[in-house]
TrEMBL record:
Gene3D superfamilies tied to this protein: 2.40.50.100
Record's keyword terms, sorted: Molybdenum
Species assigned in the record: Paramagnetospirillum marisnigri
Domain Mop: 2-67
Tree of life domain: Bacteria
Designated name of the protein: Molybdenum-pterin-binding protein
A Pfam family annotated for this UniProt entry: TOBE
Gene Ontology BP terms: molybdate ion transport
Coiled coil residues, start to end: none
Length: 67
């Protein structure tokens, strides 16, 4: 699969918290953690499980930092 996004970070799934429609997927990317919100349907389609190797693909027009 080819993507236009250029920011792909390899990591492992460390937690999946499912709601009725959406789920939070927490990934360990080199000791840093990234959380993504995806549909429960996407979790099922990908057969995503804790311990799976994944890529966090980031596509954004801006990054906002707050302190």
């Amino acid at each position: 699969m080819k993507l236009s996004a250029r920011n792909a970070l390899k990591g492992k799934v460390v937690d999946i918290s499912k709601g009725q429609v959406m789920a939070k997927v927490k990934m360990d990317v080199g000791g840093q953690f990234i959380t993504s919100l995806v549909s429960v349907e996407a979790i099922e389609d990908l057969d995503l499980k804790i311990g799976d190797s994944v890529s966090a693909i980031i596509k954004s027009s801006e990054v906002i930092i707050g302190k």
